[in-house]
Design a protein that fits this description.
By secondary structure, the chain is an alpha/beta fold. It has 38 helices and 38 strands.
């Protein structure tokens, strides 16, 4: 059946900010869906609050609303845009939950809007744990024995008849949020309480533990004619008990017999039919008992999921695009396969290689949190690698992570209290984020596969594969350099060993191995990802390297540019850099060059098969990049848009004679090297905070005495303010110094004067090497001391005079000129007592680029690429004008995923994503940003204020604003006294002590608190689930830990009647500038 002609306008709901469990895979799926719908001639409207996405670029669809994803915003947009249908299956759990709310609130009926992609019945049946259980029972499929609970009383009854442990899964949440594994009643009560709080339906599934069973996923697509295709099978290397997003996964499944696979396949199709998914894709998860082969259904997602992105990149099959086409009426046999151009989408993909995905964690950012994994997802990103065998693919994946591992390196046993044996035993028994390296090391220390299987539950086949790599390592260790032959070297390379790993084992330099390989012609070939295991000729140039015979990547004669991507998402380097790389690829193509993308992140738009002319899915290491350069012979490489990942390779690439487009390499070095940077500022007569470099604590103490406390302590050459702290005393300096040295041992620790109360400024500049133009200037809401990536930002600045703005622009341009900037550059300033201090200069794209581009209506990354490739600023004809609307960037944090993590902010970055609020004034933009960050309107109720002594006086103006907004203030004794004395009347005294009558927790239980203000002095500590800031998280209440943020919110509540008076407008189309 051809597409539907009764549809004119489609509304697509995005997934909002990047959070754990819902990351940039939904930018990839959303972008694909937008393009697919536009291709079919529909008018497309999009709502998403995340500015760092390609899908929210104006021009991709007909109307782009960067607005909070709430019922009121959606109803207003539906009223304005009059869509015929809504597609909610591309925006993760956020969009699905919103579709249910629109239905329940009668909005769909009121405006006559239909849901496509998944019906309300199908969503409810799949997402509601009770309905799903009944559906599986009806078709005769088993699930773990379980009980649906709505209260702690029901839990108590359950424990009387069922043994521990239990697995807890809340309904309608993402990334297993609110779930966990309970071994005791206390743990069960705590996890269920949290689960009930985060579940929109106040419902939790408590099920029998099947920890240790094998876990599999199938990606399935079905159309309304009941054609079904299985896109891909995925096997979790970690057994049940670890969230699939946190597990190492392998595609296709490696340890299933054909009978087992066919059985899972038949079950998946049965499930799709019963749930009623008939116009799109789903992900179905199974558990298989390793003892007797019993199969149980775990869950299904009736939408495009995280696994869909992985399956899509693993097979080359564009799941999101096909799902969008099915939603508008097509059947699978009517949609051509983009990869082969010869087969329809009803042909099941077939692959002749192995794909490994390894998650990337950020526990080092939350040092007080245990890095134990469970059913609640905690990884912040992932990488994917492709090889001919599991071993090759696995080793390529390990070195793609950028965690300092070049393979199965021996883990760190540094512990003051435990022996190596105790640490190893502990690491094998509990699943931690680094367990795989301990498994490999256990083999070195004599553990058998049987013993390891018993401890870890990892399938013996995987253990055998890992053991063969360890045995090969032992052989390499015993080999003399003179004994290496081309045959031996080729064998090691086929097993996935990198030059660096071989060099470490042989105790020689990496260049020795590199030169040896080139001399003997031991080089990889590139194979094509073609969806059909080479049965049909493929048209799509999507490649991976392997040490095989035939090379399938045949370079063209066209002039080409290689763009290095940003690798795995992590805190400090997220989707913003992928956004820049995608724009670079498009800009390169617009100038008539061929664009080549090299990246290893399966979640992103940059690794989509149609973003660039050619895609290489490879680790971003010197060795792997050089193989692509040798084959493709590009004019040069762009390393300045993918964050620190490609920038770290600049030196090696430059030394190897590779041309680097953009700002000269020497300038990058001048900006990164502390001494050269200080010299340059002296020359330009620019100021920086007093500072010094220390290699020992004694040096640090001397510098601190000279500068005076407080001081900023940070390691050099790290990302996202890693291990950066403000020390207020010699005692704190000693504590933080130890950690800073640990993080970057080969570099000195940097010590800076801390500019208390200074306003921080971010500036983006464009340059062609001779002329320079302001790209954007942002004012931070929070004062100095909060990492720029975690601070709320405003454009245009609201609290700086025009004279100060001119001075800042002058200084920025002087720096850009001195560094001969070609492309983008980011500068961070601090303004205190009318003086300007230079904090940091990055001669590369910054994480602010997407936000600034959308605020000013100009694609800065595109312009930067053109400038790098030789265009002049005059040819681009861009000049900065302050935007007429105000835009606020607010950040979102993953604290709720990390037990014990405190919500206080500091110099080390902790946010995973961002939202954008746009308005006619600061107040409207600010409140929209807060609503978007919490994904819910600010409710009626009291404001709790409990702040440190140093913040009490400064909190008075905010208290008066809250009072004007009609809010009652609940304050702790000391704060109450200060506010009462200042004349605040709508005030009540409360306490943080649960034993006292009228304590704040009683108000919270009665649901009478709308937001929480709680500041604290900066210190490292773990806080338990009863702490006020943890309670705020569990209730998803807006919380503020800074005076500035609180005051801005209070003013916004007054100006917008608590967010009731807001208008929603689409982004203006980007300014058209021809190249």
């Amino acid at each position: 059946m051809p597409k539907r002609t009764d549809i004119k306008t489609v509304l697509l709901i995005g997934s909002g900010p990047i959070v754990i469990g819902q990351a940039c895979e939904f930018d990839y799926s959303g972008t694909q869906a937008c393009k697919a719908l536009k291709e079919e001639g529909y008018r497309v409207v999009l709502i998403n609050s995340n500015p760092a996405t390609i899908m929210t670029d104006p021009g991709l669809v007909d109307a782009t609303y960067i607005e909070p994803i709430t019922i009121s915003a959606l109803e207003s947009i539906i009223e304005q845009e009059k869509p015929d249908v809504i597609l909610p299956t591309m925006g993760g759990q956020t969009a699905l939950n919103m579709a249910i709310k629109l239905h329940e609130n009668g909005v769909l009926k009121k405006y006559g809007v239909e849901l496509i992609g998944a019906s309300i019945e199908a969503i409810n049946k799949a997402e509601n744990r009770e309905l799903f259980l009944k559906a599986m029972d009806k078709i005769g499929l088993g699930m773990p024995k379980s009980s649906i609970v709505h209260s702690l009383e029901e839990v108590k009854i359950l424990t009387e008849t069922h043994p521990f442990p239990f697995i807890i899964r809340p309904s309608f949440t993402l990334g297993g949020a609110g779930g966990g594994i309970a071994h005791t009643y206390d743990e069960l009560a705590r996890i269920v309480s949290h689960g009930l709080a985060v579940s929109p339906t106040n419902e939790v599934l408590v099920e029998q533990s099947i920890i240790g069973w094998k876990e599999y996923e199938l990606e399935v697509m079905r159309d309304h004619k009941d054609n079904v295709v299985i896109i891909c099978s995925i096997e979790n290397l970690d057994p049940m008990g670890v969230h699939t997003g946190d597990s190492i996964t392998v595609a296709p499944a490696q340890t299933l017999t054909d009978w087992e696979y066919q059985n899972l396949r038949d079950m998946s199709i049965k499930i799709m039919r019963e749930i009623g998914v008939d116009t799109g894709g789903s992900n179905v998860q199974f558990a298989v008992n390793p003892v007797d082969g019993e199969i149980l259904v775990i869950e299904m997602n009736p939408r495009v999921s995280r696994s869909s992105a992985l399956a899509s990149k693993a097979t080359g099959f564009p799941i999101a695009k096909i799902a969008a086409k099915l939603a508008i009426g097509y059947t699978l046999d009517e949609i051509p396969n983009d990869i082969t151009k010869k087969t329809p989408a009803s042909f099941e993909p077939s692959i002749d290689y192995v794909v490994t995905k390894i998650p990337r964690f950020a526990f080092e950012k939350f040092s007080m949190t245990d890095d134990r994994l469970g059913t609640q997802m905690q990884s912040v990103g992932e990488i994917m690698a492709i090889g001919r065998t599991f071993r090759e693919s696995f080793q390529k994946a390990l070195r793609s992570l950028e965690t300092g591992h070049t393979g199965l390196n021996a883990p760190d046993y540094d512990d003051d209290y435990k022996t190596t044996e105790e640490i190893l035993e502990e690491q094998l028994q509990t699943v931690g984020s680094t367990r795989i390296w301990y498994v490999a090391d256990a083999m070195r220390q004599g553990w058998t596969d049987e013993g390891l299987f018993e401890q870890t539950g990892i399938d013996p086949w995987f253990l055998w594969q890992i053991r063969s790599l360890i045995e090969e390592e032992q052989l390499i260790l015993k080999t003399e350099l003179s004994e290496i032959s081309p045959v031996k070297l080729r064998k090691w390379k086929r097993l996935g060993f990198s030059d660096q790993r071989i060099a470490e084992l042989l105790n020689v330099t990496e260049s020795r191995i590199h030169n040896m390989r080139y001399e003997w012609n031991v080089l990889p070939v590139f194979k094509q990802v073609d969806t059909c295991a080479a049965e049909f000729e493929s048209e799509t140039p999507y490649y991976y390297s392997t040490y095989d015979e035939e090379n399938e990547s045949l370079p063209t004669e066209k002039a080409k540019v290689l763009i290095l991507g940003s690798g795995p998402n992590r805190i400090g380097q997220g989707i913003e850099f992928d956004y820049c790389c995608v724009h670079a690829s498009w800009a390169v193509r617009e100038l008539g060059y061929e664009s080549i993308m090299l990246n290893c992140n399966p979640e992103t738009v940059s690794t989509d098969y149609d973003t660039s002319n050619r895609l290489y899915f490879e680790p971003i290491t010197f060795e792997d990049v050089m193989h692509v350069i040798d084959l493709e012979q590009p004019l040069g490489v762009i390393v300045q848009l993918g964050g620190q990942t490609p920038l770290k390779l600049a030196q090696q690439l430059n030394d190897a004679g590779v041309r680097l487009f953009g700002t000269p390499f020497e300038s990058i070095d001048r900006a990164e090297d502390r001494e050269k940077f200080a010299k340059m500022l002296k020359k330009l007569k620019l100021k920086q905070p007093r500072n010094g470099m220390a290699r020992s604590l004694k040096d640090a103490e001397k510098i601190a005495e000279k500068i005076g406390y407080p001081i900023l302590v940070r390691p050099s050459y790290v990302l996202g303010g890693r291990a950066m702290m403000v020390a207020e005393s010699a005692k704190e300096l000693g504590e933080y110094f130890k950690e800073a040295i640990k993080v970057s041992p080969e570099h000195p620790v940097l010590i800076d004067q801390f500019l208390q109360g200074a306003i921080e400024i971010d500036m983006d500049l464009l340059g062609d090497g001779k002329n320079f133009e302001l790209g954007g200037i942002l004012e931070h809401v929070e004062r100095a001391g909060i990492h720029s990536g975690d601070s709320a930002c405003i454009i245009p600045p609201q609290n700086l005079t025009s004279t100060m703005l001119c001075r800042l622009e002058e200084q920025g341009k002087a720096l850009a000129k001195e560094l001969s900037v070609k492309g983008l550059m980011n500068i961070q300033f601090a303004v205190k007592d009318n003086e300007i201090f230079l904090i940091e200069v990055n001669p590369r794209a910054s994480r602010t680029v997407p936000f600034v581009s959308k605020a000013i209506g100009h694609p800065l990354a595109k312009y930067a690429t053109w400038l790098m490739l030789g265009l002049n600023l005059s040819e681009i004809d861009f000049s900065y004008e302050a935007p007429q609307t105000v835009s606020v960037k607010e950040t979102v944090f993953p604290f709720v995923s990390f037990s014990g993590a405190d919500t206080e902010l500091g110099p080390e970055m902790k946010s995973t994503g961002e939202v954008m609020g746009r308005g006619k004034n600061l107040e409207e933009a600010f409140i929209k940003a807060q609503i978007a960050a919490y994904q819910s309107e600010i409710k009626e109720g009291c404001v709790f204020i409990g702040v440190t002594d140093q913040d009490k006086q400064e909190m008075i103006p905010a208290a008066f604003e809250f009072q004007q907004a009609g809010r009652k203030i609940l304050a702790t004794a000391g704060t109450f006294k200060v506010l009462q004395k200042a004349g605040v009347t709508n005030l009540e005294k409360t306490s943080l002590d649960r034993k006292e009558a009228g304590n704040i927790f009683e108000y919270l239980e009665r649901n009478e608190v709308a937001l929480i203000v709680n500041t604290t002095r900066s210190r490292k500590r773990s806080i338990d689930s009863t702490h006020i800031r943890r309670v705020a998280l569990l209730h998803n209440l807006p919380y503020f830990t800074t005076v500035e943020g609180t005051l801005n919110l209070a003013r916004a509540l007054v100006a917008t009647d608590s967010g009731k008076n807001l208008s929603y407008q689409p982004l203006p189309l980007l300014q058209k500038i021809s190249s």
